[in-house]
Write a structure and sequence with these properties.
two-stranded antiparallel ribbon, 11 helices
Length: about 210
């Protein structure tokens, strides 16, 4: 048309779209994917931990030597800081099973909100975040306002919530046109119109079990 339009996107929209399969499952009433086994985390300070209220917190401290002193201080684990088993990144990785057990026990002593408050009050400079569930996003105001999750009336299932398009177009907004096709829904149409098969040939293929 020769006319431009404004495009907007974000890390949140992109992250939702990348995980579309998981969100589709949750939106349709299924459970989300399981997290990776925490006990195998090579770096215990880049791992997720269970809090007292059944919520989870994520640590993403990849430069663990740089933040080890601060981390121990904020967590109230000052006795752990000078322990030779955990003094360096190499040693912490070597003894990760033991350290993860210690951190598991420590994080279970307080709720997620209490830990976030402790980190904020101490102005923690290492990376941490609460872990949201996929189901939490179904009612997230920001995701809904930006149409990263949209309502769709599925003809067989009914009203569901599905990931929208991660890029917002000011003049020609994208939208979900229809549901995914049923198994074999367009088989006859493709064979007839695109490949030029006759009805007799299609019937033969069905009889031989080649198509449904």
């Amino acid at each position: 048309t020769g006319k431009g339009q404004k495009l907007e996107t974000s890390l949140l929209g992109s992250a939702i779209n990348i995980q579309a399969m998981a969100f589709n499952a949750v939106g349709l009433g299924a459970e989300g994917y399981k997290r990776q086994a925490r006990k195998r985390a090579i770096n215990p300070m880049a791992n997720h931990y269970h809090c007292a209220d059944d919520e989870w917190i994520l640590l993403c401290i990849n430069q663990s030597d740089r933040f080890w002193h601060e981390f121990c201080t904020v967590m109230g684990l000052t006795d752990l800081e000078k322990d030779p088993l955990y003094l360096t990144e190499k040693e912490r990785s070597k003894h990760r099973t033991e350290l993860i057990e210690i951190l598991d026990k420590t994080f279970k002593e307080k709720t997620l909100a209490e830990w976030l408050d402790i980190f904020e009050r101490n102005k923690a400079s290492f990376a941490y975040s609460p872990i949201n569930r996929w189901s939490d996003l179904l009612t997230d105001p920001q995701a809904l306002k930006n149409q990263y999750l949209v309502d769709f009336n599925h003809p067989a299932i009914g009203p569901v919530k599905l990931p929208g398009y991660p890029v917002l177009f000011s003049e020609t907004p994208a939208k979900i046109q229809r549901q995914a096709p049923e198994h074999g829904e367009h088989t006859e149409e493709i064979l007839l119109e695109l490949l030029g098969y006759s009805w007799e040939k299609i019937a033969q293929l069905k009889e031989n079990g080649v198509i449904n």
